[in-house]
Amino acid sequence: MKNGVELSWAGKGDGYALVRDEGTGAPVRVPYEEVRPRRLVEAARYGDAAADNLLISGENLYALKTLARAGHAGTVKCVYIDPPYNTGNAFAHYDDALEHSLWLGMMQDRLALLRELLAPSGVIFVSIDDAKIHYLRLLLDDVFGCANFCGQLVWEKKKKPSFVSSNLGVVTEYILAYARERNLSPPFVGGTTTVGKKYPLNNAGNSVKTLSFPAGAVAFRCADGVVEPQDMSEGNIITRLLDRVEILGGRNRDAFRLEGEWRYSQETLDGLIRAGEPIVISKLPFRPNHVKGGGAPKKLKNLLSIAHYQMSTYEDATNESRALFGERAAFDYPKPEKLLMTLIDAVTEEGDVVLDCFAGSGTTGAVALKMIRRFVLVEAGNHCETHIVPRLRKVIEGTDPGGVSPLVPPHPSRADAETKLRAGATRPLGWTGGGGFRYCTLGEVL
Fold first, then answer.
1. How far apart are CA 28 and CA 21, in angstroms?
2. Within 10 Å of residue 18's Cβ, how many Cβ atoms?
3. Helix (H) or strand (E) run with residue 27 in it
4. Collapsed DSSP state (helix, strand, coil) of residue 242
5. What are the Cα distances from residue 343, in Å, to 127, 157, 385?
6. Do the Cβ atoms of 66 and 57 come closer than 8 Å?
7. 318 with 328: CB under 8 angstroms?
8. Which residue from 78, 260, 371, 418 puts its CA 20 to 30 A from 176's CA?
9. How would DSSP label each residue in 353-405?
């Protein structure tokens, strides 16, 4: 028993795996020893012939085994999967009605292989809803180890609630994040700090202490003159000026001390001043602020909301899908490109490998292409042909109609396309095309 807690279900560890029948597409159980690597058969190549991106059409358990055998083990920086939530519904493009124990076994087998494919510093993101999140959390603890749990992200999935429950209106889903080895995983980056943002040094509730400001260290945005020692407390802010301050040319001529409840220690303040970080006081009573230069990486918040990140929702994703495929062929419940961009950007850099073995309509691959990441997609359904290939070709050609295309700047190697876009574009300057991928099927057992 791992970690002192074990999730158990009927059929766990019985030596069988759940796969799609290659003839009918129906789920069938086969002995696990029959789950063996296959030969990758290249069916087509699109775009840049040298591009190292891969779309595999076929059962994802066989494909993951194949990838591990083909040298991909330990190379993937980010896995994102949006597996069936096992809601009991059958959607137009996939079946979501497995018996509960079969779903758990199906997920365990694939998560174990995904862990093998992750780089030591790699991270996996798994989307899930309220009904299965607790089972999935225990399952991920079992496969990855509870010490490698990085966090639970809450995604605001809808602008208006879904009333599928008789008790509550639902507006959120969840994304569980685990690392292969958490001590090697990166901090999750969610943008950069704002240029010129003020951070008050006062912090009500902290212990009272004295900070010393060296001569010339503070920029005063008020008239030159002399300020005598005095109590500058107001409301819940405690501040006492302990020394006479002469402001000359917008700077303090001599060192002075302030007593108060401070956010920073003297050591931290001295470090900021040595680094040339601006410390500003605008008026009486003195309220010193640290003005940050901005542009530094900022940690991702766990609430991926419309308010915090202008996050896209299912409504937005449906509109994206309709623009890509038309009203009748739009995908059921696709994830929006901005959600994928946020996750991929949080833990990867250009050139890193992103993998999605429940590729659906190809959102992960489309976003990875635009962000200059390498991708590996696996999809068993016929929408490899009907959705993913057409979508990725549009991204390569620069004719993709939306998603994050306007948000992603052109890559330096695509200067010609950028120039053409500037000369005659009708959409915002952004993604202009490029990249390529191999489209493969699974052949005979190796």
1. 6
2. 23
3. strand 27-31
4. coil
5. 11, 15, 26
6. no
7. no
8. 371
9. EEEESS-TTTHHHHHHHHTT-EEEEEE-STHIIIIIHHHHHHHHHT---STTG
At residue 87 the predicted structure's pLDDT band, cuts being 50, 70 and 90, is low
From the list 355, 201, 369, the residue with the least C-alpha distance to 290 is 201
Tell me the pairing of strands 289-291 and 198-200.
Answer: antiparallel
CA distance 141 to 57: 29
Place of tokens 């309709």: 322
Q: What is the pLDDT of residues 212-237, one digit of tens each?
A: 999 999 999 999 999 999 999 999 99
Render pLDDT for 403-426 as a digit per residue (tens, 0 to 9): 999 888 766 554 444 444 444 444
The identity of residue 25, as a single letter, is G
Residues 6+ apart with CB under 8 A from 53: 365, 368, 369, 374, 375, 376, 435, 436, 437, 438
Q: What is the pLDDT of residue 419?
A: 45
| Residue whose pair of structure tokens reads 């002469």 in the numeric block | 246
- Residue 141: CB atoms within 10 Å: 20
DSSP single-letter state for residue 328: T
| In contact, 286 and 241? CB cutoff 8 Å | yes
Model-level pTM?
0.81
Q: What sign results for the dihedral spanned by CA atoms 19, 83, 407, 413?
A: negative
What type of residue sits at position 187?
P
Residue 165 confidence class, pLDDT cut points 50, 70, 90: low
For residue 307, list its beta bridge partners: none
Which residues neighbour 324 within 8 Å (Cβ) at sequence distance 6 or greater?
A: 330, 361, 387, 390, 391, 394, 400, 401
Count other Cβ atoms within 10 Å, centred on residue 236.
Answer: 9
Q: Which residue carries 């980056």 as its tokens?
A: 189
DSSP strand pairing (374-379 vs 353-356): parallel
Pull the structure tokens for residue 378.
Answer: 């696996």
CA–CA distance, 316 with 331 (Å, rounded to integer): 12
For residue 346, which phi and psi values (nearest 5 degrees)? -65, -30
At residue 58, the 3 state secondary structure works out as coil
Evaluate whether 231 touches 290 at the Cβ level (below 8 Å).
Answer: no
In this structure, are residues 262 and 206 in contact, taking their beta carbons and an 8 Å threshold?
Answer: yes
